[in-house]
Amino acid sequence: MPELKVNLLEKEYHCLICQQLMQPTTEIVPCFYCGKREKADYVCPNGHYICEECRLATPDEIVRKTCEASVEVDPLRIAFKILSHPAIPMHSPVHHYLVACTLLAALRNATKFKAERVTFDDALRRGKRIPYGSCGSLGVCGAAVGVGIAVSIFTRATTMSDKERSLAMQAVVEALKNIAEIGGPRCCKASTFTAIITGAKFFKNLETSIQIPEKPQFCSFMSVNEDCLKERCPYFR
Ligand SMILES: [Zn+2]
Ligand SMILES: [Zn+2]
């Protein structure tokens, strides 16, 4: 009987975050998104590891898990982490609640504000009420509303509040003005960056110790955005 020879080719995996070739490992490493530490089979040369739950996560789950686990005080750094996940589309209503959740996570990390799973679920629920394309059809970009959601949750504003209600609306006005100045066609990434930077400045003026993000020097999404504004975009390099 002839000897059965099986050519077991080594499988190659590329990092979902930085596309480098993953290397075999036996180490216990933290998940890039949720922070869970577990024994990994592969890790990338830049130390990226994604647990199975996060690999298969929906956009809602990846936003919530990343915000729950983050210790960052710069909300844009949290946002970039989430935006690197393959489940997040180039343009989508995910960006509306992503803005709210990243601002709330940075506030929790920088102040005594408590943001737990229910807080992020609340922000998600509120953000989902804003339809896709609201910028063009309603005249309100959902990323700007995301700033209003964060201010409303942070100050516990309601329809009956005095200052808190005004603050939430003023935050949306500022973010919306800055987003409108960019021009179109819409770019959910440019709107997200602008909304988060505006929101962080707004919270800084409320005397919180949130970190105001630096303006991104390079947009890694320009190559995948068919409608990129290129030279007209403040983040284009
Ligand atoms: Zn990597
Ligand atoms: Zn994970």
List the helices and strands and how they pair.
Layout: E1 23-24, E2 28-30, E3 37-39, E4 42-43, H1 52-55, H2 59-69, H3 75-83, H4 94-110, H5 117-127, H6 134-138, H7 142-155, H8 163-182, H9 188-205
Antiparallel strand pairs: 1-4, 2-3
Helix pairs in contact: 2-4, 2-5, 3-4, 4-5, 4-7, 4-9, 5-7, 7-8, 7-9, 8-9
This protein binds zinc ion (2 copies).
Protein model, in words:
The protein has 237 residues and is mainly alpha-helical. It has 2 domains: 12-56, no CATH class; 58-232, no CATH class. 46% of the residues lie in helices and 4% in strands. It has 9 helices and 4 strands; from the N terminus they run E-E-E-E-H-H-H-H-H-H-H-H-H. It has helices spanning 52-55, 59-69, 75-83, 94-110, 117-127, 134-138, 142-155, 163-182, 188-205, and strands at 23-24, 28-30, 37-39, 42-43. A two-stranded antiparallel sheet has the order 1-4. A two-stranded antiparallel ribbon has the order 2-3. Strand 2 (28-30) and strand 3 (37-39) form a beta hairpin. Helix 2 (59-69) runs antiparallel to helix 5, helix 4 runs parallel beside helix 7 and helix 8 (163-182) packs antiparallel against helix 9 (188-205). It is globular and about 60 Å long. The structure holds zinc ion (2 copies). One zinc ion is lined by residues 15, 17-18, 20, 44, 46, 48. The site of one zinc ion has 7 residues, from helix 1.
